[in-house]
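Changelog-adjacent note: as of this version, every example in the card shows the full chain rather than a window. The one below runs 118 residues end to end.
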Amino acid sequence: QVQLVESGGGLVQAGGSLRLSCAASGRTVGTNRAAWFRQAPGKEREFVAEIVYSASFGRYADSVKGRFTISRDNAKNTVYLQMNSLNPEDTAVYYCKLSSASGRLVYWGQGTQVTVSS
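Full-length structure tokens:
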């Protein structure tokens, strides 16, 4: 059983920053990548960023490229999403996902709310 607990969400003014955390516990063997997704009210869940554990860089949605940075602390088994220059369009519930390359293993967190005021 794998548990993912997101934290760090909140209310921030436009132009501000937040850092989201996703702490994993349990049997995460077999997972080799982590990602952040988000879902705004009335919209579908969308990809934000992904990091493959063997790589040194992340992959980003065009809408957040240059503003968001995904990283991982192996020792803490935690994935982070540093979000800078936030704007109201970034308002959403942010979800953490751990998965295997094959997609056979997929785990989701419960989500954390990010609200950006103008």
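Structural remarks: Residues 48 and 64 are 7 Å apart (CA to CA).
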